[in-house]
Write a structure and sequence with these properties.
mainly alpha, 4 domains, 17 helices, about 0% strand, flat
Length: about 375
Amino acid sequence: MTNIHDLTNLLRDVRSEYQTAWQKAEEERKQELATLQRDYVRNTPTYAAKEKEIQLNYEVSIVAAREKAAKKTAEEIEELKAWEQARIGRIDETALSKINALRGIPLTTAELQEVLAKNGRSNYWVQKAVGALAEENGIPVTELPLDASLDTKLNVLNQLSDQLDKLLSFYNMGAHDGESMRARFLYLNNDILNNAVNIYNNGVQDLSEMDAVERSYCKIKAMSGQMSKAVAISNSLRNLKKEDAKNMLLYRLATDDSIRSEAYEVAGISDVMAEWKGGKADRYARAVKMMDKIKAMQDTEKIKEHLRSYINRVEMGSESENEFLRHEITKAHKKNSFIVQALGEMSRSEQDTLFGNGAEPEGGTTAE
């Protein structure tokens, strides 16, 4: 077997067959025990011998089903491991020399996809080399059709094998302890098998927003020329999917005077950076700082006090409305019960200032 999809489908079949075999053995034991209690006299040697025989037959059936399932999958898992390990030995030196010649040259996602397609995307070392180019250019490897590393694949296979062992060892419809419940509902369930396929084929999971931004910023800083920085900036802003992540990166860039205006011009974001340097960065920093402080509070009165202090500053003209604070409050309102309660106890006019005119928070009540 050389395909993770085939292996996970096999594991689904083995899981189902074992559960069916266990349930069949359990049902047969119950029927035989019912017959024993009906036809034999309790507390006699004959009754005890027959009861022991029923239990032995039941255990033999379970062991046989367990051994069949283990043997059926162990061979396939080992075969897939061997196949993956054999791929490491196939080195295309010509393709690798072409790819390595691109080191230090700014590249886009589309260009790397073309490099991969033209130089053998099924070759392990070609994929590793293209992945290194993506890393160099600040492009997430999730944007490219790359396989996982050998270590990742072997780890996935070992985890699947371990979960199968636990399923076979602890599956018991009548037990309610932690391991038995996990064997019934968790080990090798469809979500775990689907996730195994995703990790096996893609090799990485999406980074958190903060980690993705930090990685992008470091890549931009590491570029030696302004043209290289411009390409890295353009790639990063395109590859960061969420608006929050883009704002984090723009803030980092706006507060970094070492990146020259030429890079922003080539990247096509001169006007955007002028806005951030002209006040947006300051508003963003104040909004994040204020909300971090509020999110740490578990006293709704203090939360209202801080929010009303901001409202008063806006009404007095000492501070303009902060679009980033509005966004941060909206996000926090969906996750923080203390903020939900505090906002629900504030007046409609106060909510209008915090969320924008006409907007209303989801849930909670509005104080009149």
